[in-house]
Design brief:
heterodimer; A: Alpha-Beta Plaits; Alpha-Beta Plaits; nine-stranded mixed sheet; two-stranded antiparallel ribbon; B: alpha/beta; globular
Chain lengths: 233, 614
Amino acid sequence: MIIRAKFTKRNYLKYLSHLDLMRLFQRSFSTIQMPIKYSEGFNPHPKFSIANPLSLGLESECEYMDIDITEHIDIDDFIKEINMVLPEDIQITKAICLEKGESISSVLSWAYYEIKVDLNQEESVESLEESISKWLKKEEVLITRLKKKGKNKVPTEINIVPLLGNITIKGLDENNYIVINALLRTGEGGNLKPVQLMEAMSRDLNLNLDLDSLLIKRIALYAEKDKNIYCPL
Amino acid sequence: MINKLKLDKVLMKVEKPARYIGMEKNSYKKDLNKVNVKFAFSFPDVYEVGMSHLGLQIIYNLINSVESFACERVFAPWVDMEREMRKEGIPLYSLESKEEVKNFDFLGFTLQYEMSYTNILNILDLSHIPFNSKDRDESFPIIIAGGSCAYNPEPLANFFDLFVIGEGEEVILELLNLYDELKKGPYSKDSFLMEASKIEGVYVPKFYNVSYNEDGTINEMYPLVANLPKVINKRYVIDLDRMYTPDKLIVPYIDTVHDRIALELFRGCTRGCRFCQAGILYRPIREKSVENLVKISENLVNNTGYDSISLMSLSSCDYSQLLLLTKELMRKYEDKKIGLSLPSLRLDSFSIDILKEIEKVRKSGLTFAPEAGSQRLRDVINKGVTEDDLVNAVTYAFEEGWSRVKLYFMIGLPTETDEDIMGIKDLAYLVKDIFFNRPNEERKGNFKVTASASCFVPKPFTPFQWYGQDTIDEFLRKIYMVKNSIKDKKVVFNYHDADLSYIEAIFARGDRRLSDLLVNAWRKGCKFDGWSDLFRYDLWLEALEESNIDGSFYANRTRDINEVLPWDFINSGVSKEFLIREYKNAIDGKTTDDCRNGCRACGITDCSMRGAYN
């Protein structure tokens, strides 16, 4: 049996690496004595996986995790108990029990981000909006990525336009950072990191954005079926 | 509070940013505006090291157990973080409230090793706090220190407002309560320090002066203020079962050096190894009861989620109820997949039996510490193990399935000859022969023996406190003698940095005149000196030269028994007569038996061994 859970990763806990996060969950599961399945072998480890792990430094409102369990447990009790031992900024917001199914990572194909960045110059939101929307109409925006070829990593140019979904400018926040929402491809069918989008945007539009100041939050992860985007949980 | 946007910028650029965020399970987050006393506790090394220190967990929980006090943590930022913080102009902050260190009432350092001293200066600098106590007015925190290196506080005397000598569980609250009380009236820092100096175990360096002889040795240390004690007595807790013991530990998110429950069985040690400072400082021996330990372990397991308990002590196998304790703990935790481990092992069959019992699953490497290569030298240092003990222990270990053995040695011990040194190689080869002399079909695993040699640093309050350290050249000669004689891939020889041990020896037995040296070394960029890849001997040599300090005066000179030592004004409870007697016994190659088998009259009062066996 599998528990599919949705959880947050907020505030300073965005600085936990994937490995640290896995350890935190492992410890928390053992604290509440969850009947978790262990892998076979010399060094057994609990079976659970987090889909599309976040890069270090990104917050999220919506991460997904599959947990293999050996016996049925009450979902509401599980959420209540695990949230007691988890930190305030990492909380399970929803969970369901599945008999068996596709792994959560194979289902997810779009990620929705909120991106905040310090606009290093005096430019109005309106004019920025205009230049960005012009930029988004281009058929080709190339970025360079290192791709593995055998043992070496070779710089390869790729067009990111097919990886872009809706991108909207929300305005300025209380720190005078510009706020952008972006839907980007994720998973096996192509992947674009929000940082790469901002690098390309800053480069092509001569925006001189202070990329060190980027604050990124993943707001949602979506699956896609017959051109319909939906929430998997 | 520091600027969060700036901090975010910096944290995105550094390695392991989770070192700098706090927020761990069981950490406190009090509103600093609503407490009477704000205490910043600093372990002057990187987070992963500091968080592995049990003393931090005790003091942190103890102070925070008082509602009107808050204790928050401060570590040394790693070099990348320091660079970015300086670039962005972020001052050093506490992990909990992200509050500037400068805004706390107290900044307390734990002094665990001499090579962390430059980090202390770096922490003060990053906090925008002047180094010298005389340059700090009332607006700065009171800077205090404790821990085992505080037993020779003199090299740091200029920097600290006060030192706590001995165990902190009782003194720390006495100090904070005093401060809390005085703050209600017309407060001045001097009045606080004056009142604090009346607390047993508290040393306020600025109230004392030192005069020197022409040859550079100390003539006299004397109080500058009437009614101050000439001798500072160490503090220790008499009954560990009634002492404050935390029922929870902060659980770090990132992997730390010691990432498990530390269960302290007892304090003190009865073995009397003559090189060992802890063995003297933590006397008398005091055990916790099995009942209490089981209860503590239960709390810690429930509150942390750790799956491993380490039974900690100076010599854990000497715990008088060890068999009973391990049985109780195994019975309780085996089903919960919680493992036990023993960090310090002796070379006797009893230890191996216990080990066999508790390490049923993982058979990792085994570590033994014969400390010296020959029986003659082991007698000199009073390490009561024989070659037979080693043979029996490793034979047994190989039978039980272990295949990797580590042996720890020291070089530069008093009376050491080249023959003693070559004994290191002989013992390593002996272990190898024992393994390969077993029938082929009974040999399990991939055999390796590692012999590690550290360079001996004479420490205050040990029978070897007078003894001059070997020169670096002499260390290297001895090291290469062993290294070049080993020509076997299954025998590995490691050795510690002799340069580093030399600087450590200077500070271990140093006096007040070393303050400038420390500042100069820090100015040149020395920090994290305990990390051999960051240790800059070249800079230390320059600093020694510019400070006009002869390092050999402190490190290599064998001191006269009658010389006034910089730490003579501290009473560790063990008498100087005992140390002299033991020094002479060492030179004569005479051993002194474990004090469980009869009192050796070391000078400690309130010792249970005394009542029980004499």
